[in-house]
Amino acid sequence: MAMNTGGRLVAGSHNRNEFVLINADEIGRIKAVHELSGQICQICGDEVEIINEEPFVACNECAFPVCRTCYEYERKEGSQACPQCKTRYKRIKGFARVEGDEDEDGSVYGGLSGSATTSGHDSSQGIDIPLLTYGEEYAEIAHNQSAIIVPLFASNVNGVHSNPPGTAAPLHPRPMAPEKDLAVYGYGSVAWKDRMEEWRRRQNEKLQVVQHQGANGDDFDGGNFGADLPMMDEGRQPLSRKLPIASSRINPYRMVIILRLAVLGLFFHYRILHPVPGAYGLWMTSVICEIWFATSWILDQFPKWYPIERETYLDRLSLRYEKEGKPSELADVDVFVSTVDPMKEPPLITANTVLSILASDYPVDKVSCYMSDDGAAMLTFEALSETSEFARKWVPFSKKFNIEPRAPEWYFCQKIDYLKNKVHPSFVRERRAMKREYEEFKVRINRLVAMAEKVPEEGWTMQDGTPWPGNNVQDHPGMIQVFLGHEGVCDIEGNELPRLVYVSREKRPGFEHHKKAGAMNSLIRVSAVLSNAPYLLNVDCDHYINNSKALREAMCFLMDPTSGKKVCYVQFPQRFDGIDHHDRYSNRNVVFFDINMKGLDGLQGPIYVGTGCVFRRQALYGFDAPTKKKAPSKTCNCWPKWCCLCCGARKSKKGKAKRDKKSKHKEASKQVHALETIEEEINISQDKLEKKFGQSPVFVASTLGMPNSISSTSLLKEAIHVISCGYEDKTEWGKEVGWIYGSVTEDILTGFKMHCHGWRSVYCMPKRPAFKGSAPINLSDRLHQVLRWALGSVEIFLSKHCPIWYGYGGGLKWLERFSYINSVVYPWTSIPLLVYCTLPAICLLTGKFIVPEISNYAGIIFIALFITIAVTGILEMQWGGVGIDDWWRNEQFWVIGGVSSHFFALFQGLLKVLAGVSTNFTVTSKGGDEDGGFAELYLFKWTSLLIPPTTLLIINIVGVVVGVADAVNNGYDSWGPLFGRLFFAIWVIMHLYPFLKGLMGKQEGVPTVIIIWSILLSSILTLVWVRINPFVSRDGPVLEICGLNCDD
């Protein structure tokens, strides 16, 4: 139902009873290409089709000529029997099953091979098959006015049908009496023909047959078609398909994984049985760390056992749901965009995201965009108002010339030939005009940003002098305004625009608002009241739609009638703009999105990553996935006849009698108690739904798919009600419904709950990336982002929703559970990783090592382990399509993030859960690189997260210097034992090298903080150096007599 606000902002509070308005032709049926059989259907008069070079035969008893359409109609909606012999039609392969097919032994093929099937009776004794006239003439019919008798076996020019043995020439139909036509027997009447035509019309609406093009590009018609190119019913074909990884790639990968497991077993067998004398502590510590790393590798590796890719068919989607001359049947989609702080999330970036949504290639009446402003900033409100005005020009321009991407900032800045494939004569002129319009739009947005930097003491006021309701960020009413989508607002060409709604939920002191998860749940409710689309798209404010057909890509999975019913969401990979070519800090995260997620898609589906995801609304409501119907239990027909001779027949008869009696009793009871039962169920279900979803009858009705029939004013009040701060009290919101609370990474928890309910997800990777966003390329911002992700994983690990012990007995598969366990356990790897990266320096400074003298057997095991590790990575890169640079950057940042962000997140999570010390949510800064040349990449921002990796770098570098100096001092024999220690330390330094480059930055001088830390750590290490005294022999000073008499 459209909400008419007259373009005014709606603000109010349900708890305070406040509610104010603030000014501010059906197409012709296309027949399939087929040859004419020469036979006429005796029901409808059409030609009988040819199948496998033979005429289609519906009844193998009498071969009564019936076309495929009439055969299918008779089985679905008719008597299911042959009009001539009254024999029940058997299912022909290729046709859907109907009730009663289960009792048949099998199905038959449409078409005859050899002679037609005859009955078991001899023709001389009379054929016991009822004809339309039961083989006799009616008494009241004269001899020259006989009822029609269709011959049992009709002759065919190809000789396919032959006469039965002992019969004469085929019978010819006698003339039909004028007063008695086929209507006497229920066929051929006007009413029946009307029913038949109506059924045909419905079938043609479902089936759209396309004309295939030949090799020469010519269209086929009814008389010209290529050999071996049958017509395909594209509208009925699957909308997507799986593309398994080629066996030549995946089988060697699996073999190497098994081999690596065997080598790991031998490795730990050797390590445990061969301790290091004199360095027992170092040996034990290293073995414990290695066991943890092996366990972590197993949790990460086995969910990648069944990687797959997917392919979508957008043309089939259009054939099925978009027919010419009729409204589009594609499902409605509500798009959620969330923002908090416009100073960290620039309004221009958010505006581009909104514009790309409004201009997407999807029916405009099916798209509604909801902007959640959780900071209640007037800057965001005014910027969205400017965006709605510019959208009236940008949307028709984007769709007219079919440009990509449809976010103007990235469209105008791309360095490509924008004239490629553009043939419209006015394109250049209109593009220049639109670029000028966009530059003026940017100036207006930047002016608003500049004004917002100085907040007046009395707060912001609107144009009519009304104080802005969100002046107090922590205490303000809920606000809603519909900018686009209401009556009278169209684009400059007079076309309808998608709906654009501004939403800021109510906030009051003393209430828990649950950050982003709470804001998303508010959007779920308000969108259900206003538009109630069955599917929801969630994007961050900096993730614009890069592929205008992204929504259609998702619908190929969600709207597929066969495989889409159990899909809870479609996750797209995250792609980013503005990242340096080398991707120093692994911002693209290519290994995760191109390898791990493909592996999960082969199991139960990818995990939800927080953005670029299309949900099924019913799955977010906490409902279980639809279950498959159980296969019918085995009956006597399934077993050999000898096992049913004794009591099988008796049991079947008794069981059948009981079932018939029960079914009659149920039908009678349903008819008697129908009204009473319905009223009781409605009352009970209403109470349960209100306890689950809250005290809004409009929203509860929307969860059941019931349409809203209330006035616009009442609809506004309900919309304000569902975003009030106390609406979720004593409900299941955040527990079983919507985005789940309890972690700053609500995305992992929400997807995990859906998979526990039996749903599956889908990973969609179109050739053109569906979404693109901005990533923090600065080292400090990147570490803070990883810190937040790791903190959320620690919170989930310490909660009741931990996948180690939650969700058993549901629909979660074991390998999928492994992936979720790995996603919440990985921060704990920071402790053994930090210790393990410290061991090389300790070994170099003390002269000891974690491994005893290596024998030939041990050397073979170590070499085999390194080879299997390398081959596993190479094969992963091969089937995942990942470059070696991206793979190596991912390995490097795994160490950098592990010894910094993951380590701090572990302690913050423990303090928050055990001691109640809460940490503030940090919004990652987003924005373009205005200075050019990736200036932000070299910007240094001091943070405590830099301390652990800096310390590791210094002590390992000092350890290398000390080890080399010690080897030089002690001679040639000390170089052999030094090799293993140096390799160990250099391995750590190479992994921390990007961190070292980020630490130094692009500055003339080193930051003062780094100098202080370096001096402090160097002093400590110098004292250690003096204590070790490496230039003195390990056995003490060597005293020799010099040969001189010092007493003289």
UniProtKB/TrEMBL annotation:
Recorded E.C. number(s)? 2.4.1.12
Q: Which residues form the RING-type domain?
A: 41-86
What class does this enzyme belong to in the EC scheme?
Answer: transferase
According to the record, the segments passing through the membrane are: 825-845, 857-875, 895-917, 938-958, 978-996, 1008-1028
Q: Which cofactors go with this protein?
A: Zn(2+); Mn(2+)
Annotated GO biological process? cell wall organization; cellulose biosynthetic process
Region labeled Disordered — which residues? 101-123
Please name the SUPFAM superfamilies in this protein's record.
Answer: Nucleotide-diphospho-sugar transferases, RING/U-box
The protein's annotated catalytic reaction(s) are: [(1->4)-beta-D-glucosyl](n) + UDP-alpha-D-glucose = [(1->4)-beta-D-glucosyl](n+1) + UDP + H(+)
The active site lies at: 374, 747
Q: Where does it mainly reside?
A: membrane
Q: Which Gene Ontology terms of cellular component type are present?
A: plasma membrane
Cell compartments where the protein resides: Cell membrane
| Compositional bias segments (type: Polar residues) | 114-123
The domain of life is: Eukaryota
Where does this protein act, in terms of pathway?
Glycan metabolism; plant cellulose biosynthesis
Keywords assigned by UniProt? Cell membrane, Cell wall biogenesis/degradation, Cellulose biosynthesis, Glycosyltransferase, Manganese, Membrane, Metal-binding, Transferase, Transmembrane, Transmembrane helix, Zinc, Zinc-finger
GO MF terms held by the record:
cellulose synthase (UDP-forming) activity; zinc ion binding
Question: Which InterPro entries does UniProt cross-reference here?
Answer: Cellulose_synth, CES_Znf_RING, Nucleotide-diphossugar_trans, Znf_RING, Znf_RING/FYVE/PHD
- Residues binding UDP-alpha-D-glucose, per UniProt: 338, 344-345, 374, 515
Q: Does the keyword Cytoplasm apply?
A: no
For this chain, the family text in UniProt reads: Belongs to the glycosyltransferase 2 family. Plant cellulose synthase subfamily.
Name of this chain's protein: Cellulose synthase
Q: Which organism is it from?
A: Salvia divinorum (Maria pastora)
